[in-house]
Amino acid sequence: MTKARNERFVVDHAVIVLGHEMNHEGEPDLIGRSRLLLASDIVRSDPRSILVTSGWAYRKDIDLSLAASMKRSAVRDLELDQKRIHCLAKSKDTVGDAVFFAEAVRAEKVTVVTSTFHQKRAERIFRFVLGADVVLDVLGTGQSPTPKQKANENQSLGVFRDTFDGIASGDFDAIRGRLKSAHPFYNGTLDVRALKRPGDRRLSCRPATFEDVKQLLEWRNAPEVRSASVEGEEISLATHSTWLRKSLSNPDRIILIFHNGIIRVGMVRFDCAEAQTLTTVSILLDPAVRGTGLAKSILKHAVSYAELQNHDLKAVARKENLPSIALFEGLGFEARTEGEFVELRRIALANDS
């Protein structure tokens, strides 16, 4: 293993194992161990190869990166020579895995080891970043993906394609620049450490931007959303764009976009004009994640946010929209029927501090 002038390691064969998670003692989880076992076997069988471990120090309770955790396990448990292991401790997701790998290692052949459910997306991402000249093999461990895993992977691929739209495969400088400017894990938009908090559902939120306009319109115009909305007509992109621009500049309106990991899954809007005694809260969920429990988690976060501002809350739902009414009632909103609508209210606890 040698270094080129640009400080990239030059090797014949690099085997990169994608990390998953680690516990409070810094030990890889079962998924990560399964990947590491396969990757180590490949490295042992090819004396020209090195093992590359990847993943950042996402846990606040231990000072250890996921890459270092995987390396430690490979040396201690699998008796792999530590001189043949290279750690990449900056990546926070698969896109980062590929970009920081390409930045640090130059290899004629690259083998990526991940899980079977993640295999397709990993191959698309690494092929895009590395370009067509590199011999690429992507291997998976574990069972075939479930329908839910397939849906999540396809949605993540869509986000990836949108983020790097207009860039050619293998154009590394452009890819790296786009990662740092447009990817929310690397441009400071999202608190990724919060997403990885133990026991968390990887849920986080941020203020909306105009870049969210098409995603919000897609959710808003979904038939199942319109049928349950107070205003159920379909709206055009032009109309929605005008509304969002005005909303983003309106000091009495707050729009938060919620992410599950990197995936946008919902929106919460607060309308809090001073002339009104109650702040109106509205929630819009991606139809693809209905029934997963995310709606309650999102609304719970939103209520906590509002209570920090000492806002009393109001929501309005059609009286036949029983799931929405139950969602708000489950978080302490009191319902009263007014004609064809139900108004739900939640009075903030007094701030005694």
Strands, helices and their partners?
Blueprint: E1 2-3, E2 9-18, H1 30-45, E3 49-54, H2 66-76, E4 85-88, H3 94-104, E5 105-115, H4 119-130, E6 135-141, H5 147-163, H6 172-182, H7 192-195, E7 203-207, H8 213-220, H9 223-226, H10 237-248, E8 253-260, E9 263-271, E10 279-285, H11 294-308, E11 313-318, H12 322-329, E12 334-338, E13 341-346
Parallel strand pairs: 2-3, 2-5, 3-4, 5-6, 10-11
Antiparallel strand pairs: 1-2, 7-8, 8-9, 9-10, 11-13, 12-13
Helix pairs in contact: 3-4, 3-6, 4-5
Descriptive notes:
The longest helix is centred in the middle third of the chain and has 17 residues, at 147-163. The strands form two sheets. Strands 7-8-9-10-11-13-12 form a seven-stranded mixed β-sheet, sandwiched between helices. Strands 1, 2, 3, 4, 5 and 6 form a six-stranded mixed β-sheet that branches. It folds into two domains: 2-182, Rossmann fold (3-Layer(aba) Sandwich); 201-346, Aminopeptidase, CATH 3.40.630.30. The chain has helices spanning 30-45, 66-76, 94-104, 119-130, 147-163, 172-182, 192-195, 213-220, 223-226, 237-248, 294-308, 322-329, and strands at residues 2-3, 9-18, 49-54, 85-88, 105-115, 135-141, 203-207, 253-260, 263-271, 279-285, 313-318, 334-338, 341-346. By secondary structure, the protein is an alpha/beta fold. Helix 3 packs parallel to helix 4, helix 3 packs across helix 6 (172-182) and helix 4 packs parallel to helix 5.
